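Standup notes
- DV: blocked on the single-chain target, sequence here:
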Amino acid sequence: FAHLYQLESKGDTLTTSTITASKASELVDELVDLRDEKRRVIDAMDGRAEEIKEKLAGYSAETGNTSIYGAEHYATVSTSTSVSVPKLGSEPRIELEAVLKAFGLWEQVDQLSSSKLKKLADSGALTDEQREAVNKYLERSESSRVGLRKRKT
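- DV (later): unblocked, structure below
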């Protein structure tokens, strides 16, 4: 609070400082400006990086290439599919549980573990009828990950 008093009373310097109170105040404002500018630049760079990753993932999906080479580095693209089941207690969840029990599959999915249900749905163990009945309750989403590595010389 001593600085605020010194600043408001137009005092030149605090006894323990080598700069004036008004200069210290300007430095605080400059520091805030730098912090805000840094955030803007980082946000812009992160946005551009996400755009590039999406384009590389799209290129990888179209061409089947999982490694994409640049001049000194290369990108590896991996895509995974996740499965989510309806929320506990919801009508679709109750229906899905009934379908699994009717087909005798309830024990195989360990009380509706989404990872076990995904493995079961993707395996060849289900008949077409079972797979169709189960899949209508599952929500699948794909996500891609792009990693960078240095090329070996």
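- Follow-up: The first helix runs from residue 2 to 8.
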